[in-house]
Design a protein that fits this description.
Helix 1 packs parallel to helix 4. The chain folds into two domains: 155 residues, no CATH class; 123 residues, Cyclophilin-like (Cyclophilin, Beta Barrel). 46% of the residues are buried. The protein is built from four helices and 18 strands. It is an alpha+beta fold.
Length: 316
C-alpha cells in the first residue's frame, strides 16, 4: 500500500472529515457526528469504489482548494458547486481522475449547502472509537477534532486512477432556498396545544443564522405547550424537532447531543434527512405530516436508489 497526501491550500468556510458517524457509544455520552447528508456521502464513496463509511471531506457553502501529490480517483456529490481541476471544469456527481500536482478548486455553491469529496481508498486519519468523523464541539475525530486549516495534509492512498464513472442520480436539492420535509408525530406531541400542532405543518420556518451542525433553530410562530414542566433527559436522534420553553423549535442535526430534556413535537423521517442537510441559514422549510408506513416506504425507496446505481455501476 502506497500512501500519498491531500493538502488543504484554502479550507473554505467549513470543511471537515466525515464518515457515517461514531455509533455504539451514545450510552456513554459520545455524540455520533457524521455527515449532514448521509445519502450524498454514501453515493460519493460508491462512485470511487469505497465502502459506504469511508472518510470523506464535507464541504459547506464555500469550498476548499486542495492539492494532490498522488494519482487517485475522486468524486463530488451533494450540493452543486462551480469547480475546476487545474482550470478545467469538474463534473459533479461522477468520478474523475486527479494526478500529482493537480489542484482542485471549489467555486461558489449554485444549489444546496454541502458536498462530499470522496477519494478512492478514503481519508486515512486515525480513527477514534471506530470512526474518523469530526465532532467539532468535543474536538473528537477527523484531524485533532477541528475544521481543516491551510497547510493540513491528509493521508490518502496512491493508486492508479480508475476510468471515470457515468453521472449518478443524486439527491433532489432545495429549490429557491426552500424545502419540504416529511415528519411523523414526536413522542411528546401531546405536550402541545392544537394551534402549535397546526402551525408546525402550515407555516414556513426560516433557518436562523444561529444554526450549525448541532441543530437548526427555526424562526416562526412560537409553538405553545399545553402542559408545563420538562422531561427527564432521554435519548435524541437526528431529525428530532425539540421545543424549549420559549417555543422556538430546534431541528437536531448531525452533531446533536446524545440526550435532551425538551419535548419533541415531531421527527423528520429518515428519507428526508439528507435534504435537511442541504439547507443553510436563511433558507425556509415546511413540514408535512405523514404516517409511519409512508416513512418506511420512503426510506426503502431511497435505499433502492443507491442499490440501483450500484448495480448499474457494476454492469458498466
Amino acid at each position: 500500500m502506497t500512501l500519498g497526501s491531500l493538502e488543504i491550500v484554502k479550507p473554505g468556510l467549513l470543511t471537515s472529515i466525515q464518515d457515517l458517524g461514531r455509533f455504539g457509544h451514545q450510552a456513554l455520552g459520545v455524540p455520533v457526528a457524521g455527515p449532514m447528508d448521509a445519502f450524498s456521502l454514501r453515493l460519493a464513496n460508491q462512485l470511487v469504489g469505497n465502502d459506504a463509511d469511508a472518510a470523506t471531506l464535507e464541504v459547506t457553502l464555500i469550498g476548499p482548494e486542495v492539492l494532490f501529490d498522488a494519482e487517485t480517483t475522486v468524486a463530488i456529490v451533494g450540493a452543486v458547486f462551480e469547480g475546476t481541476c487545474d482550470g478545467r471544469a469538474i463534473p459533479m456527481g461522477a468520478s474523475f481522475a486527479v494526478h500529482p500536482g493537480q489542484r482542485l478548486k471549489f467555486g461558489r455553491v449554485v444549489q444546496g449547502a454541502r458536498a462530499y469529496l470522496a477519494i478512492a481508498g478514503g481519508i486515512l486519519t486515525e480513527a477514534v472509537l471506530g470512526s474518523r468523523a469530526t465532532h467539532l464541539v468535543s474536538q473528537m475525530g477527523g484531524l485533532t477534532g477541528r475544521a481543516l486549516s491551510p497547510g493540513d495534509r491528509l493521508p490518502v492512498l496512491a493508486r492508479p486512477a480508475a476510468r471515470p464513472s457515468r453521472k449518478a442520480f443524486g439527491l433532489t436539492l432545495p429549490t429557491g432556498g426552500r424545502a419540504r420535509l416529511r415528519v411523523v408525530p414526536g413522542p411528546q406531541d401531546d405536550w402541545f396545544d392544537a394551534d402549535a400542532l397546526k402551525a408546525l405543518t402550515t407555516v414556513s420556518f426560516r433557518i436562523s443564522p444561529r444554526s450549525n451542525r448541532m441543530g437548526y433553530r427555526l424562526e416562526g410562530p412560537p409553538l405553545a405547550r399545553a402542559r408545563e414542566g420538562e422531561l427527564i433527559s432521554e435519548p435524541v436522534g437526528m431529525g428530532a424537532i425539540q421545543v424549549p420553553g420559549a417555543g422556538e423549535p430546534i431541528l437536531l442535526m448531525a452533531d446533536r447531543q446524545t440526550a435532551g430534556g425538551y419535548p419533541k413535537i415531531a421527527h423528520v423521517i429518515s428519507a428526508d434527512l439528507p435534504l435537511a442537510g442541504q439547507l443553510a441559514p436563511g433558507d425556509f422549510v415546511e413540514f408535512i405530516l405523514c404516517t409511519r408506513q409512508e416513512a418506511i416506504a420512503a426510506l426503502i425507496a431511497r435505499e433502492r436508489q443507491l442499490l440501483r446505481y450500484a448495480v448499474m455501476k457494476d454492469a458498466s
